[in-house]
Amino acid sequence: MKLSDLKLGARLGAGFAVILVLALAVAALSIARLNSIGEMQKQMSERATLNALAMQWQGETGVNLARTLAIAKSGGLQSLSDYLQPLMRQTTERISGLQKEIESRTMTDEGKRLMKEVAEHRKAYIATRNEIFEMLKNGDMIGAGPLVDSKLVPMSAAYLDAIGAYAKRQHDRNAAVEQDMAASIQQAQVWLAALSVASLVLGALLAWAITRSVTRPLHQAVAAADIIAKGDLTQEVVVNRKDELGHLLSALSAMQNQLRAVVSRIRQSTDSISTASAEIATGNQDLSSRTEQAASSLQQTASSMEQ
After folding, report:
1. Of 88, 100, 237, 293, whose CB neighbour count within 10 A is largest?
2. DSSP codes of every residue in 239-250
3. Which residues contact residue 221 at a Cβ distance below 8 angstroms, ignoring those fewer than 6 apart?
């Protein structure tokens, strides 16, 4: 089906529909990308929070480790132990709260595995620390001293490393999400630019095609009307369309044919009038001749009667 076969309303509706579809596509893509970016930002915020909590946990654990080593190295000095152990208990409570909050926020299998390792190292570290404190409390400084270097320090280092591994994972995941978000933003920019250019190009082509499909037959109709107005009925009006402008051209063609018929009838009537006029003129001449002949005969008769 050609464009000229469509009605003007259908043509304009199709053109606007295409533009609206492209506009909706741009809007849908923008909304989808914004939702995706918003979700990524939410993930980044959550992982940044987890990383901050893990770093706080690591710091609190390091403080308690320093207090534990101070008590152990002092040989269980009572005054130092009485001062530091209440602080250690407070820090331990905060660490337990941090651990519970982090566990409740951790959703991935890998994160849960790392948290399980941290919990195991913490359990082993606390058990060794309590064992050393119990030995110091009982005055067994000889037995407690070697345990500090051989067990407590390595266990505390492993405990801190496990927390650091969890924090590093959150940092790495955060960096990966940040890269994905940057790539998503870049991809969205490319798609939006492509759709915008496609909208402009397609819109310009549709506007040109629809305008051309309307103006050309209008010019043809105006030219035909001008020729008819000048009295020239010999030019044929070509109709090769099925839209409203095709109907206009058909009407002009029908009007031209009717005018031709009227002119033909007028011409025939004029010819008939000319023939009748010629016959009347001939009859008048005959009548004049006969009148002259009759007058001559009357004059001759009158002369004869006088004689």
Report:
1. 237
2. ----SHHHHHHH
3. 245, 248, 249, 252
